[in-house]
Amino acid sequence: xxxxxxxxxxxxxxxxxxxxxxxxxxxxxxxxxxxxxxxxxxxxxxxxxxxxxxxxxxxxxxxxxxxxxxxxxxxxxxxxxxxxxxxxxxxxxxxxxxxxxxxxxxxxxxxxxxxxxxxxxxxxxxxxxxxxxxxxxxxxxxxxxxxxxxxxxxxxxxxxxxxxxxxxxxxxxxxxxxxxxxxxxxxxxxxxxxxxxxxxxxxxxxxxxxxxxxxxxxxxxxxxxxxxxxxxxxxxxxx
Length: 239
Ligand code: SF4
Known about the structure:
- By secondary structure, this protein is α+β, with helices and mostly antiparallel strands.
- It has 2 domains: 9-76, Ubiquitin-like (UB roll), CATH 3.10.20.740; 84-209 and 218-223, 2-Layer Sandwich (Alpha-Beta Plaits), CATH 3.30.70.
- It contains 7 helices and 10 strands.
- Iron/sulfur cluster is lined by residues 147-153, 177, 199-200, 202, 204-205.
- Iron/sulfur cluster binds at residues 147-153, 177, 199-200, 202, 204-205.
């Protein structure tokens, strides 16, 4: 039985399947919807709001909103672009992101989105918060200066690693990522191979002793803008 249904994204007809989110259907169709807290292996969270689209004129997060027959999705209007740029700029000013000194540079999804959107310098003043580092673990390093509170590490540790190493504590500007130990990361069962480590979209959780193994300039988003892999599926549908 063909249970597929049609809807449109920016006027392009897309086929969806029951149970799919708008983002999943868009990915299959080779249409990139920008995202940060979303990760293919993790349950959708809808917290970063970068994937906000208009569905029949109403703002919805594409990572959580189910696709449905006949819906009209807007993904790339000037107004949506402005919302996404504002969100990304606010993430930059809320933390301490010094890309030129960060081992994640070139592989960082936040940096890559800023490049994709042509953000040169945020229009808001930097907050320069004081944030803690945790270098206690022999294999893993946490730099909360770069954390964007996306919750990927929390979901990956819980749902993929089966460990619950990470969790949020505090509220508002005091919200931060914490570890499941009285002291520090070294006292948890976090391990180098944990999916929670690789799920971090920025340089807030890093593996030790791999720094600059791949030179800056030869990294993932140095080669092609973020989202190019998804868009390539549309350009070459039979690859
Ligand atoms: S440490 Fe990384 S994965 Fe975890 S919430 Fe912060 S940015 Fe997201």
